[in-house]
């Protein structure tokens, strides 16, 4: 589900980019624009059930909701503590995967609001990944056979975490680009994927972001996923219409414009 599909400028219909994957019944949250708890509740997910999340990069439209999310979770933990005062350790924890280069900023952001001091109630465990735009990738296990490979995008001077999420037993392959120029290392994996969500902020090439023309050319070369979802959409309806027209021209059955808060794919379905 896209919790938000707009770029750094939100619209009436679309919030800043973020997403929710439900993998074997457990939520994986991607990025923290504003009002994350409310969006999770609307999606039927208890914020305290989010045990693992990814902060793809340090830009404000992806990070600014993190301290608020942690603060809300601390508030939610207080009555749990009151009901069970002798429970050792925090009442809930969040494992937060982020680029190694952003870990210090995340810690300082939480410190700014005194949130780390409440770790006896709700604890954030940082998992920094040393991923670069052209360099090493990082692999890890999530749960129940789900694993991920984090691949750095190219977004100005940053290398946001793109993800290839796979379940070999079930045959699932899900790809998330975060903010990036058309990411060849992710697009080369698109063939055989059930879904690819990629930054598509314009119809024609632009700096630091993906565009429909280049993505179409690269997917024609590498092979299309079952479903392509353009993300980080422009705030301009005319530009969105141009993106839709480009995709409709070449792949009318292989793309879907995202609607915030609507599931795109049912991962419980058999493959
Ligand atoms: Zn960004």
Q: What labels describe this entry?
A:
single chain, 271 residues, alpha/beta, Metallo-beta-lactamase, Chain A, 6-stranded mixed sheet, 7 helices, 25% helix, binds zinc ion
Structure commentary:
By secondary structure, this protein is of the alpha/beta class. It has a single domain, classed as Metallo-beta-lactamase, Chain A. 25% of the residues lie in helices and 24% in strands. The protein contains seven helices and twelve strands. The chain has helices at residues 36-42, 60-63, 66-83, 103-112, 184-187, 212-222, 237-250; strands at residues 2-4, 18-23, 26-30, 52-54, 92-99, 122-129, 138-141, 146-152, 161-167, 172-176, 195-199, 228-231. Strand 3 (26-30), helix 1 (36-42) and strand 4 (52-54) form a beta-alpha-beta unit. The longest helix has 18 residues, at 66-83. The radius of gyration is 18 Å and the shape is globular. Bound molecules: zinc ion. Residues 57, 59, 155, 179 line the site of zinc ion.
CATH fold category name: Metallo-beta-lactamase, Chain A
**Strand percentage, roughly?**
15-25%
Shape: globular
Q: Please identify the top-level CATH class.
A: Alpha Beta
Average pLDDT? 96
> Ends: how far apart?
19 Å
Q: Unreliable stretches, pLDDT < 50, 5 or more residues?
A: none
Helix content: 25-40%
Main beta sheet, described? 6 strands, mixed
Count of beta strands: 12
Question: Reading side by side through the largest sheet, how are the strands ordered?
Answer: 1-2-3-4-5-6
- Summed up, the helix count is 7
Radius of gyration: 18 Å
Output the CATH homologous superfamily.
Ribonuclease Z/Hydroxyacylglutathione hydrolase-like
Run of helices and strands:
EEEHEHHEHEEEEEHEHEH
Give the domain tally.
1
Summing up helix and strand content along with how strands pair, one would put the structural category as alpha/beta
